[in-house]
Amino acid sequence: MRAGPRTPPSAVGPDLPQDAGSHLPQAVFADLYDQHFHEIYRYIAGRLGRDVADDIAADTFVVALRKRNTFDASRGGVRPWLFGIATRLVAEHRRKETRRYRALGRLRPDEVTESHEGQVVDWVAAESLRPRLARAIAALSRGDRDVLLLGALGDLSHEEIAQALGIPYGTVGSRLSRARKKVRSALEEDSHG
Amino acid sequence: MDEIRMIRSLLGEAPPSDEVVAEGRRRLAAHAPARSARTRRRLWGGLALVGAATAVAVAIGLTGGGPPATRRTEVRPLTARQILLTAADKAASTPVGRYWHTHVISSEGYHVDRGDYMIFGARHEIDQWIARSDKDPDVFRSRFAGAVPQTAADRAAWKKAGSPSTWRVLSNGQTIRQSARSHAWDLVRMTPAQKRGERRLEAKMAARCAKKPQACPPAQPTDAQREAMARDPEALKRYLLKAAGGGGSSYLLSVAGRFLLDPSSPQLRAAVFRVLADVPGVRSLGASRDSLGRPATVLAGRMTQNGNVYDSELLLDPVTYVPLGTQMVLVHGNGGRTVPPSPGMPPAQSGGLETKGMKPGAITHSEIYLTMGWTNTAYGG
């Protein structure tokens, strides 16, 4: 951490506005943080684990503050915009993400149950499927996984996912159904395995 | 088979700890550059090797050598209403200056099982000069201050436990680590040109949001809207009550403290105290001391949250009646019931619920105002 005077915030990014049209003023970021930090954190923690999420969730808001000129209210709300930034930061840690799924896939069911106690009440019957589920998620393409997990972990609607990733609405639907199909078939195949 | 539900169950994680939330907020406030995970771990975890002597010095330096914070009642006690109306008069006659200067230390109270005492942890310190004129720069300093035992009794228990410089404590159902080590200060200056740019952005944002509110975050009152409430006590009361949310009128003292942290005219500050004077249930606890040992007049509103009974307190300087801080003090706990983090729990309900091991009088949340007022002296000048 630096102790001395730093470059003033408005001069940090190369792309900061002197005069921006519909962008977010700095003053709203404290509120945005209070409203969205938890859900952004849990989305990132779901994909990268808690250790990494401690940092990346905070980064999401610092990056958002610096790139507030890229926010365009006519293209969607603040929430999908933040999830989009979070998703791009997650993408920089793809190896950690894969490692996390692999680790979850390796866990024996009883270990899994213990470490997630309280969250898995509806899961007990199917816990032996967890390794397969983790492998299936790891095997998805990045684009499919982004769509699937923005919905499953971030609770974003199709429209919000389209806004977060900057892709057409129809693409969200096709990616999602492909991802779900892959996951489902991984879960259903060879039920003795 | 619902694979979405299974994915949530597989990948779902508990909410962040208070200190992670506080660190993120500090970084956002300081516009701090992203720090690597390795650095962060070093800051939170690896500082265990702070010498015990340093830790003692830090603890004593920050909690002050003053007498223990025990409650004493004045000979001729004023009612809460009398105190608040006096505070209103004093506020109304306090002149404004070139800079609004506030210096605040926010922290959470944690119970330490080994040795059975309380500490202030996740201590976030903000020291800022906001210029009244757009032609003067603003200065914003912040840092994480190390954790310290709460009272003299806590300090004694801490010494008896071997004067540890790190602690493991419960937060949101998880064990987190706290360290006595303070971090270095971050400093951000905002030049007049940058401030003008911000004002333009805010104005455009406001204009746009007036047309399309659904795509905008909830609006903060502008300076003009805040000041208008000085002449409209009902609107001011409605605003503060709304900010108090589920806490209701008993929580207004804490909310008012936060409201007074922003720059405002003497008239608006006086209006806030007058609103508080009319709130039923606010009572005076008389003369006492704050957790730094400063003499304080204490006002309290009683509230219940999750089976825990608290006093939401506003502390005033006994001479100037300037706020010295706010705190949540445990009156009696819910019997040690811990609240497990559950997926999807909104942030508002996920903090400060644990009172396990805490005795009556424990401070579960604290905002200490080291400075609050107008000054003509610039930072460093």
Automatic annotation (TrEMBL), chain A:
Protein's recorded name: RNA polymerase sigma factor
Domain annotation RNA polymerase sigma-70 region: ranges: 32-100
InterPro entries linked: RNA_pol_sigma-70-like, RNA_pol_sigma-70_dom, RNA_pol_sigma70_r2, RNA_pol_sigma70_r4_t2, RNA_pol_sigma_r2, RNA_pol_sigma_r3/r4-like, WH-like_DNA-bd_sf
Species this protein is from: Actinoallomurus oryzae
Recorded family membership: Belongs to the sigma-70 factor family. ECF subfamily.
PANTHER family reported in the protein's UniProt record: RNA POLYMERASE ECF-TYPE SIGMA FACTO, RNA POLYMERASE SIGMA FACTOR HI_1459-RELATED
NCBIfam families to which the protein is assigned, alphabetical: sigma70-ECF
UniProtKB keywords: DNA-binding, Sigma factor, Transcription, Transcription regulation
Highest taxon in the source lineage: Bacteria
Residue intervals of the RNA polymerase sigma factor 70 region 4 type domain: 132-182
UniProtKB/TrEMBL annotation, chain B:
TM annotation in the entry: 43-62
InterPro entries tied to this protein: CU044_5270-like
Keyword Membrane annotated: yes
UniProt keyword annotations, A-Z: Membrane, Transmembrane, Transmembrane helix
Protein name according to UniProt: CU044_5270 family protein
Native source species: Actinoallomurus oryzae
